[in-house]
Amino acid sequence: MTEQPLVGVTVLPEYIQSESIEGVLQNLVGRAKATAVATSPYLMAPADEQTGGREPPIDAGEGAVRLLERPLWGRRELWVATAPSFAPDVSLYRGLRYQPPPPSELTRRHERLIHDFLDAAHGRGLKVYFQVMAAIPPGYRVQFGGAEEDDKPRMFDGRIPARRVSNNASLASPHVVAYQEALIRDLLRAYPNIDGLRFDWPEYPPYLLDEAFFDFSDHARAAAERLRYDFEAMRRDAESLYCILHGELTDDALRRWLSSDAEREFLLMRLFADYRGVAALLHFKATLAEELVASFRRAMDEAGGRKKELSANAFPPPWSIVSGFDFARVSRHCASVAVKLYGMHWAMMLRLYGRQLLEANPNLSEPLLTRALVRLLDIADDEGLRNLDAYRYPSPDQPFPVGREPQLRKIRQAQAGAGATPVHTLVHAYGPLDDFGRRLALARQAGPHGFWVNRYGYLSDEKLDAIGG
Fold first, then answer.
1. Per the confidence metrics, is the pTM higher than 0.85?
2. φ/ψ (deg, to 5) at 7
């Protein structure tokens, strides 16, 4: 029997609260013709600016232009607070550094909501998954969690960058791994009819250039010793490469990079020959990511969830190389992998990388640097836009400044790595309708396994119809 391509939509719980179970399911099944839905085990309530977090998230200050397309409690921008949707079993976390947030009045007021949503979604023929964070305790949602100071990833000099986006912990932290395993057991106890768990960011997300130079934390040092990596060689070569990028970059080097594919391949081979510690660092991070996902699979199996699916959401190539997400290795433990084609983030990251490099190398030509970054990150069908500021986080009515062919290439590269494990395209719902429609068509074409659409809050009725169309 031929596998039917998946059509999944991520619907965070606040919309189940705001629009009702039936309202959401009518949109998913009636309009979008979805076959799967992902939600999360928390509840939300409006708050004030002093006590809550912004919805939608502000994305390190770059995403302040974002506004919800589906009003949430009548508003397109608001501040919110969260609580767990269930009463955690505290015995599972006994003796651990991280503890689950206690149930609140919000939990008690809506204690059946997620259970009822699961039942109703299954009744409409949908598969239902929980999406949780892979390395941000308490794991329910990225904006409402974080690690203790000594569990955070660090750079080669021991620094934690002053500015970060992902807030991920060190993947080597035994405290974080132990908490995640307890959380998995807790979720499968509280929601035994869930079809699977989707883990977001089981990697080191490189939103900022400094984040690409993780991880030299004490936990990483201990893991390197256990796994027999030369920690000092990795640290030394990472620092040397960082110094070259921050003070020794020249226009001549950028011209060589842009001259031909053969020259670019030669430069990369020289890089890894001259800085073998950098190559080892990339392999080390991939080992930590695989170990983390493998621990998730074991915890699911031990909790009676052998038949439940484990999926991982990840950055696309080439970011996945520095994030540590090796598709060949992680997919051994997954039922599927979802690759994020979030072009608004790609534009933001390119500009942030470029601004940091220009500040450190003020004699560089900005157009030349922009072209080199476009080529390195593979985001344009041509030479891309002319300068860094052209790659700003797009406003809601602007298309993503990325090319079609690079997006298809990234999915093909990921699927080649994942082998027989299905790779789903993960499309972001943000942006104007016509651009979303083009990205949706690309997701349908990218592979035979289907796609996920991330965030129901940006899905207007017209976009829902486009998915179903």
1. yes
2. -125, 100
